[in-house]
């Protein structure tokens, strides 16, 4: 296959004309140019995918205003999801720092013996800690701990330097007995919680970097609680369900997040197809029902299973 020449940049007017040549009704060209001034052409064309023919032309009836409104819905959905993720992230920082530090001490996280030896790579973890400090070296509290405490950071401070991905790996590397304590607060198992924290990281990164949600999927499939009457996949809706599971103790879930999501969908209902986000017909029922509380059988492993896992950690 021969290497093609990189395409030359087009003016906003030329971009509008290119859309027209491919069968898109752009309406008022001056308005089209203003839209293209706000949104990068390459980014916007990704929202044309549901309307695209095999020959790169667009299906009859495709218009720029519809695609623009799809983009705006995606942008507002991203803001909504990001806000929910941040709230959960803050809670996770507090939970992990409080439990681990009170059990092992403020600097207990620097001792590899306080993690699951089967999965924890301590040398790599120490490198991560160093990187976190270096990347935040200009913060006053980092300078303070370097000067006053010789560069020693209690866990309650260090977790504020962690990315959500770092927090997710920290939880996954904890001893089984410690992971159970945290998982109990979400009424689920450590396996489920590890999966959900990883998916939370993926969702956060997507929203933080303005990546497209509409007509897109994620790489990882979240764990499905054993008593939940729906099997999770890779869609945006499946990741919204993860937010629900992690919000089990949030009494405002139905009256806050779900209400905002309903309002957003209603606002753009003439322009979007929820199937492109993986929403099933009963999506509202799945979201508004009482937050998933895993059954006792699913929550607690048998003593034999717990002993097997915990014994494996120390052998």
Structural overview:
- With 315 residues, this protein is mostly helical.
- The protein has one domain (73-314).
- 56% of the residues lie in helices and 0% in strands.
- The protein contains 15 helices and no strands.
- The chain starts with 11 loop residues before the first helix and ends with a helix.
In short:
By secondary structure, this protein is mainly alpha-helical. It has 15 helices and no strands.
Q: Tally the helices.
A: 15
Helix/sheet category: mainly alpha
Most strands sheet: none
Question: What ranges have pLDDT less than 50 throughout 5 or more consecutive residues?
Answer: 291-304
SSE ordering: HHHHHHHHHHHHHHH
Q: How much of the sequence is in beta strands?
A: under 5%
Mean pLDDT: 92
Rg for CA atoms: 24 Å
The strand count comes to 0
Please tell me what the overall shape is.
globular
Topology:
Layout (H helix, E strand, L loop, with lengths): L11 H10 L7 H10 L2 H5 L18 H41 L17 H14 L4 H10 L5 H4 L5 H10 L2 H9 L5 H19 L27 H11 L10 H11 L15 H6 L7 H4 L3 H12 L1
Helix pairs in contact: 1-2, 4-8, 4-10, 4-12, 8-10, 10-11
